[in-house]
Amino acid sequence: MIYNYFNNIKSKNLNIDLPEWCNNQIQEDLKYFNKYDMSNSNLEKIMQKSQGNSSLLLVRFKIVDNKLFYYKGNTFALLRHDNKRKVTAKYKYICSILYRIKEFVKNVDFIISLQDYCLNDEIQPIFTFAKDLNKSIEKYNILIPDWLTLRGKHKDSWNNLKTKIDKKKKIWHFNQKENKIIWRGSLNTAYRKKFSEIAKKNKNYINNENNFIKQQDHLKYKYQIVFDGCRCTWPGYLWRLYSGCLTIKHESTQVQWFYGALKENIHYVSLKKDFEEKDLIELCVWLNKNQEKCKKISDNAEKFIIDNMSVESMLSYYINLLNEYADIQCTSENTDNFSSNFLYFNNKKKYKAYLVLSNIWNTHIKRLKYD
Q1: What is the overall mean pLDDT for the chain?
Q2: CA nearest to 262, candidates 238, 279, 284, 235
Q3: Over the stretch 72-114, which tens digit does the pLDDT of each residue have?
Q4: What is the DSSP letter of 19?
Q5: Are residues 268 and 355 in the same domain?
Q6: Are strands 58-64 and 108-113 parallel, antiparallel or unpaired?
Q7: How far apart are CA 131 and CA 89, in angstroms?
C-alpha cells in the first residue's frame, strides 16, 4: 500500500498547537483569497485549463467526512508528463501525507502543484513547495512542507537523515571541525558556478570538489553554505541548520514555508546575492575570528530545527493550513468528479496499463512536435 509511510506517527502528536510564526505564515499565504476563489467551479476551471498547459502540473484533492478523494483529472496530469515514474512517485508521497492527516481535516477541496513552484499567470489558490517573492504571481502561492523531506521511510527522508547526522555530530564537535566552507551540488545556476570558480582558487578556505559526499560527512567542516538550485534546496537547508555547523545562506527571494521564522545572525549568516571573491574571503576571515558567535548561531539553528521541524510538526502544519483554508472555502461535499482510488485505478494490471499508455502518449506528443 502507498499509505503506510506514517504509521509510526501517533495521532496524539498530530494537530498540535503551532508556534506563532506558523500561524503568521498561514495567514499571510491565505490573506489574498476568498470563498469565490476557492469555489468548486473556480477550482474546476483551474484544473481544466492546466490540462492544456504543459508548464502546469496540478493535482486536486478533496477531503470529505475524513475520507480522501482524488480528482479523476489527476491521472491525466501524470499521464502526459515525460518523466512519469518520478512524477508518480512524487504524487504518491503527497497522497501518503494527505491520507495520514485526513482524520484531522475539515471538508476541503484544494489543488497542489507537483512542480517545485507554480508558473501560473493568474492569482489562484494553489499549494506549492516554494515560491519566489520577487515574482508578482508566485508570491500568491500557498506554501506547504515539501514532499522530498516527507518521504516517509525512504532512506533520505528527514527522519532517517537526522539519525545519520546525529551519529556524526557525536564525533565532530564544533571546535574540532575544520575551519572551511564546504559545498557540493550541481552547477545549475550562475551563482553556484561562480562559487565553484572562486573555490578552486581558495582551497584554504573552501572545500568544493567534484566528488560526492554524503550529507552527514559534511559535518567535518564548520561552515555549510546554502544555494538555491532551480528553486529552494530541500531538505538541504534543514539538515545544514541541524548539523551543528554554522549555516551560510546565499541571499535569495525564494522561500519555503519556514523561511520567515529564520533570522540573520541568529540562525544563519548571509552571503550577499551578487557576491565576489573578496566577499567570500572576508566572510571566511570574519567567521574564523568570531568562533564564539558562530557557535551560538549554530546552536540557535539546531534548537530551531529540534523545536519546529519534526515530521509531526510538518504534518500538523498541513492540518492547520487546510483547516484555515476550509474555513474560508465552504466546500461542496459532492464527489462526482473524484475517486477514492490513488490513481483512479489501483492494481498492478491497471498500473502497468498506465505506464504503457504513458509511453504511447509521450511518443505521440514527441511525434507531433517534430511532424
Answers
A1: 89
A2: 238
A3: 888 777 776 667 678 888 898 999 999 999 999 999 999 999 9
A4: P
A5: no
A6: antiparallel
A7: 22
Return the C-alpha cell found at 163.
Answer: 539519525
Cis status of the peptide bond prior to 145, with omega within 30 of 0:
no
- Residues 219 and 100 grouped into a single domain: no
Backbone angles phi, psi at 60, to 5 degrees: -125, 145
Distance CA 130, CA 114 (A): 11
Q: Is 248 helix (H, G, I), strand (E, B) or coil?
A: strand
Domains contained in the chain, number: 2
Please give the DSSP secondary-structure letter assigned to residue 264. Answer: B
Whether residue 79 is found in the same domain as residue 31 = yes
Number of C-beta neighbours around residue 207 at 10 A: 18
Could you tell me which of 348, 312, 331, 351 has the C-alpha nearest to residue 104?
312
Distances, alpha carbon 19 to alpha carbons 16, 27, 239, in Å: 10, 13, 21
Residue 323 — φ and ψ, nearest 5°?
-70, -40
Q: Is residue 339 part of a domain?
A: yes
